[in-house]
Amino acid sequence: MTTSIRIEDSYQGYSLDSFCIPKHYEDDLESVLIPYGVIHDRIERIAKDIFTDFGKEPLVAICVLKGGYKFYTDLIDKINSLNRNQGERSVPLSVDFIRLRSYQNDKSVGTIEVIGGDNMESVKGKNVLVVEDIIDTGRTMQKLLGLLEEYQPKCVKVASLLLKRQPASNGYIPEYCGFEIPDKFVVGYALDFNERFRDLHHICVVNDNGINKYKV
């Protein structure tokens, strides 16, 4: 299990001038909340904890698309690096993908659409790791966990890069978590706002201009 790093509500982040930000996003962001290098250092620790917890047991790693793909790729790469460098010990990995839709504009909507998951019988009796970009209210994750339980896995654990503190949260906390963040809408490192900002390396806070420009 990985205890998250808490980013306080009072934390203002880094000035955009301190980092290389794509020109087309300069007017749409408030600050850099988590720099790219810090993200990778944190993922390395999460990978180590997962490697330690699962030992030599096979693991099915499920990516929650689209926002989770970058975290997922980097996390799997770091677990595979441990597999190559830990002598007789390694964690056999297989991969799968699912997509959930719960956002419109900057709000998590009440209904959750599950896309995919039709071919998940392979998780029966196996250890499953769900890899998600961010847990907001917790409803989306509970929906996915309920779906997975129908396939009778041996165990299911969740790795989320971010956990947002907000009043509507149902209190769900993942087993592996990178950062606990304030109730701000964040983008970058594959997290999007209506399909924008996925190409931004750092995790940043969107300003009002960015929200108004890209809302649907």
Automatic annotation (TrEMBL):
GO terms for cellular component: cytosol. Its cofactor is Mg(2+). Its main location: cytoplasm. Keywords: Cytoplasm, Glycosyltransferase, Magnesium, Metal-binding, Nucleotide-binding, Purine salvage, Transferase. The lineage of its organism: Eukaryota, Metazoa, Ecdysozoa, Arthropoda, Crustacea. This is Hypoxanthine phosphoribosyltransferase. It comes from the Eukaryota. It is found in: Cytoplasm. GO terms for molecular function: hypoxanthine phosphoribosyltransferase activity; magnesium ion binding; nucleotide binding. It comes from Daphnia sinensis. Residues 39-193 form the Phosphoribosyltransferase domain. It catalyses: IMP + diphosphate = hypoxanthine + 5-phospho-alpha-D-ribose 1-diphosphate. It is an enzyme of class 2 (transferase). One of its GO terms (biological process) is GMP salvage.
